[in-house]
Amino acid sequence: MTEDTPRTGTHEPGSEPCEAEDSIPTFPVVASGSADLPPHHDHCLGCGPANPHGHQLRVRRDAHGVHAHHRFDSRHVGAPTIAHGGAVATVLDDLFGFLLYTVGELAVTRHLAIDYLAPVLLDTPYTLRAHIHARDGRKLHLRATIENDHAHVVTTATALFLIVDIDHFLTTTHQPHHR
Ligand SMILES: CCCCCCCCCC(=O)SCCNC(=O)CCNC(=O)[C@H](O)C(C)(C)COP(=O)(O)OP(=O)(O)OC[C@H]1O[C@@H](n2cnc3c(N)ncnc32)[C@H](O)[C@@H]1OP(=O)(O)O
User: How confident is the model at residue 14 (pLDDT cuts 50, 70, 90)?
Assistant: First the structure.
């Protein structure tokens, strides 16, 4: 295992490991400077190389945060020739998830807001960037952009990720809130 390899969760002696536990990445801090970051896991919808339905994002750390180069394709179509807004949100949510390598914590999306400033076109190169705007205890306030190859920003996003411990992923008692 290298510094860049996500480690999987551990379990207490005497307790039974479970499938979920074995697939939970932890986030060793990757040193600043340009560096390839590992996928969250092989089947992650955003970045998993073994997910044929996914975006297979390849993300690098840089001096400001993280970035990726990406093309949406016909699997992600919404209006003809334009990427579906949900597909764009998926990619940005996942990109935010790579910032966890810069803080070395497990965290999940609590709030995600996107401004679709201009259509994101299929089969067109874009550069995606994300950075940590502020940290307030468990709260990570994150920002991202998508730029076309003329450096025009076509999408902006903000997110609130909340740091959780590994038990968040292991509990079987998650229940939706009922009104
Ligand atoms: C292993 C990681 C792999 C990464 C893969 C990356 C993939 C991309 C990321 C994802 O897709 S994650 C999956 C989607 N997200 C989830 O499934 C999370 C579902 N939500 C939850 O499980 C809980 O809501 C959560 C654990 C996030 C928070 O529950 P808590 O009960 O711990 O938080 P709480 O409601 O007490 O709020 C904590 C703080 O945040 C504040 N807060 C909550 N929502 C806010 C909001 N919208 N704006 C501002 N502040 C907000 C809240 O007021 C409070 O402030 P204080 O601590 O100061 O009192």
Answer: very low
Domain ranges, residue 112? 19-170
The answer to whether position 107 is within a domain reads yes
| Cα–Cα distance for residue pair 95/97, rounded to 1 Å | 5
pLDDT reading at 26 higher than 90: no
pTM for the structure as a whole: 0.88
Q: 139 CA to middle of ligand 1, Å?
A: 8
Residue nearest to atom 7 of ligand 1 (CA): 94
SS3 content of the chain, % helix, strand, coil (to 5): 15, 30, 50
Count of CB atoms situated within 10 Å of the CB of 66? 26
- Atom of ligand 1 at shortest range from CA of 161: 27
Per-residue pLDDT at 162 exceeds 90: yes
